[in-house]
Specification:
It is a single chain. This protein has 320 residues and is mainly α. The protein has 13 helices and no strands. It has helices at 3-34, 40-59, 74-97, 100-107, 110-122, 128-145, 157-176, 182-204, 218-221, 232-255, 258-265, 268-278, 286-309. Helix 3 (74-97) packs across helix 8 (182-204) and helix 5 (110-122) packs across helix 7. It is globular, with a radius of gyration of 19 Å. The two termini are 29 Å apart. The model has no long low-confidence stretch (mean pLDDT 84).
Length: 320
Amino acid sequence: MTQVSIERSNLVGALCAFTAALCFSLNDVAIKFVSDGYALHQVVFLRALVGIPTFLILVMPFFGGFRVFRTRRPLAHAARGLCVVFANSFLFLGLAALPIADAVAIFFVSPLVITVFSVIFLRERVGARRWAAIAVGFVGVLLIAKPGTSAFQLASVFPMIAASLYAVMHIIARRIGDTESAATMAIYSQSCFLFVSAAIGLSIGDGKLAEMAGADIDFLLRAWAPVDTADIPIFILLGISGLAGVLFISQAYRLSEAAFAAPFEYISMPMAILWGVTVFGTWPDMVAWAGIALILGSGLYLVWRESRKGTHVAEGPVRR
């Protein structure tokens, strides 16, 4: 491949990463918007109910038709799918209870957690500078969450759990990526969303546990509700934006060098701040700004550092 071809491929990949970040940002706004009226498992179920037919009709024909269902790793797909389902659920819980910028910022520790897990599970080597970047990122989380103070909320932990589960998902994806396509991983993830949320809805969807819920987990335990006609476009947006984000980010890392594409995912952070100010009327305080800066700075440093060394780059918080 010529230098011109590489540059063109990087440019298209970066555009795909930017578009994916926009899709995921719209998804976050829509989740927060409907979190007051519906149960989390109902939202996840309806999101998958839109996403799966969209995939089957508009996407599957371009990836070999029904061949996308062929897999050599069914158990790995099941494990990965469960990680994705519960990672999304914890992230959505955080989005419902926290300012959107705070939740997204905490979730952006995912590249840091991926680096830690790559040492534990893949026996990769991490130098002192990258460990320092990881420490700085977690200091940023502490600044936003404010543990030990009256401002601390249990919900601050949820995006952190989500980031950890996404890191596990990323490790599994790297283990099976040599035989499984992005489209195959996407359809099995969507299927897990549908079946797991349906199972949870059937078991606790009557809201019988809602009386035990505090404000932080009411979104999880409340009863399913009839869908308001005015909210149908939001659920369609959820299904399509989530699926489009998955496909665009997969394409980004297929076409572009990871070190080139990864920084464009971080556009999600200013987008989250913009949505918080314009849609929800929230603005990060000075301490939160410092935490956001530390988290983003450490994540971008990891991308830059690893790209200079020519090693694997810890991607951004890819939602698949």
